[in-house]
Amino acid sequence: MLKFLPIILILCYGFAMWFFSAWRTKAELRQNSTPLDHPALKPLLARLGRAMDLPSIRAQVYEIPIVNGLAAPDGRIYITRGFLNRMEAGEVTPEEIASVVAHELGHVAHGHSQRRMIDFAGQNVIRSILLMTLGRFLPFVGPWLVGLLVSALSARLSQKDEFEADRFATALLVKAGIGPDAQLSLFRKLDRMSGGRRAAAPAWLLSHPPTPARIAAIEANRARWQG
Q1: Are the C-beta atoms of residues 101 and 48 closer than 8 Å to each other?
Q2: Confidence class of residue 129 from pLDDT cuts 50, 70 and 90?
Q3: Mean pLDDT computed over every residue of the chain
Q4: Are residues 63 and 32 in contact, defined by beta-carbon separation less than 8 angstroms?
């Protein structure tokens, strides 16, 4: 039993760090958010709810200027003020905002937050074991390689979650009668909304899949479910 004690301690540390991060995130979101009560969005959120045999979906506005949507660890859905400002300016449609809500609902439905907690703890174990082994034989290069390997693993798992949430959103948008066209059109606007910036890291180290890959997957799902 004692020989497993270091691994148990590492797992406990990983879980504790995740819970602390989740608590801090929830506190930040609650302090800086207001209920989403926009007349153009309320009917669309009601349609998403009916498609899931639920009441109208409730979301919050996270009062920050960037363009984003997110699902908190407690299952609440947030759309940033920056996203709503783009909608008010006519750059984004209400249906495209609804597609973001559907995507975040996919994260909640698949339990991605809880899965990330387990993954985070497991990655800490892998990192520690590799550092103890590779670090012994490759004292300078070893830690860099370990960091790269763990980052690649984390990115792969995160990208898998994004594809799952996209797939859920497409199915939900079809069932709700909104359709996935808004989901596709929003992705095609992402480069412009981000100012045309490209990620410097290679695709296999990014937390989100490349936009063309996501569009291709959504189009394949649309053909399957609408065909």
Answers
A1: yes
A2: low
A3: 80
A4: yes
- Angle at the Cα of 4 from the Cα atoms of 2 and 122, rounded to 5 degrees: 155
Question: What are the backbone angles phi and psi of residue 57, rounded to the nearest 5°?
Answer: -65, 135
Q: Tokens 């053909």, residue?
A: 223
State residue 54 phi and psi, 5-degree precision: -130, 165
Rounded-to-integer distance, Cα 40 and Cα 161, Å: 29
What pLDDT does 209 receive?
86
Query: Of 48, 68, 69, 66, whose CA–CA distance to 57 is shortest?
Result: 48
Predicted confidence (pLDDT) per residue in 159-187, tens digit: 899 999 999 999 999 999 999 999 999 99
* 55 φ, ψ (degrees, to nearest 5): -65, 175
- The tens digit of pLDDT for each residue in 53-91 reads 998 899 999 999 999 999 887 889 999 999 999 999 999
C-alpha 86/C-alpha 138 separation (Å) is: 50
User: Residue 30, Cβ neighbours under 10 Å: how many?
Assistant: 12
